[in-house]
Amino acid sequence: MFVTAAVKLTPETEELLRPLLAALRLLPTQTEMLRDMLALRQLPNGPSIAEIATSSDLSVQTVRKLDQQARPDTKVQRYKSAFISYGGPDEAFAGRLYKALLAEGVHVYYFPESSIPGRQLHRTMSNAVHEYDVIVSVCSKSAVTRPGWLNELEQTVAREAREGGAELLIPILLDDYVLAEWSPDRKDLARQLRSRVVADFRGFADEEIFSKQVRRLLKALESEENSAEG
Description:
- The protein has 230 residues and is α/β, with parallel strands linked by helices.
- The chain has twelve helices and five strands.
- It has helices at residues 11-24, 28-40, 49-56, 60-70, 91-103, 111-114, 121-131, 147-162, 177-180, 187-194, 207-221, 224-229, and strands spanning 82-85, 108-109, 134-139, 169-173, 199-200.
- Helix 3 crosses helix 4 and helix 7 (121-131) packs parallel to helix 8.
- The radius of gyration is 19 Å and the shape is elongated.
- The N and C termini lie far apart (42 Å).
- The model is unreliable at 1-5 (pLDDT under 50).
């Protein structure tokens, strides 16, 4: 629960938001709460997009559009933000991928570097899955046995459905297991992964293979605004 905003939206921003908020057909109290929470985004410890979406019962996609209008001076990013989902045994690979993407200017969530001590683990990961533009899922025989990785995959698939079939999941292969052998209780999860074009990092110990797949991944992460300008 957030208190009344200590900061307010400017009149110009209010005007930009007006048609978007009107289209949502919210109650006046809901609209006011949403304005306050968007204003609080200006503060360092303000609410995340995921928290606003949960509190207002709106999709993350809708809140993100409102947030972009509320902060029009925010620089358009070249790449979409990415959450790296991985199992514990694959942490060394995930860390290497994190550094490679970070070096290219991608805003990346990698748990050892991005998490804040003291916050509830489940809420932290759930918020991140809903906050970041895409979910980069590191798939391996080791990962599929990890409840955390599986939960993040389930949340990603559910988020895609809520956001009208948005394509948010980018699978990364470290071995053949997910494609050839994985048989989870929820068969739809295997279908979701197998139906995507993957980033094939099999043989990633070879620097040439790793670098080539990072370049492919960066292409997938290019923001729509940046692609349009190009």
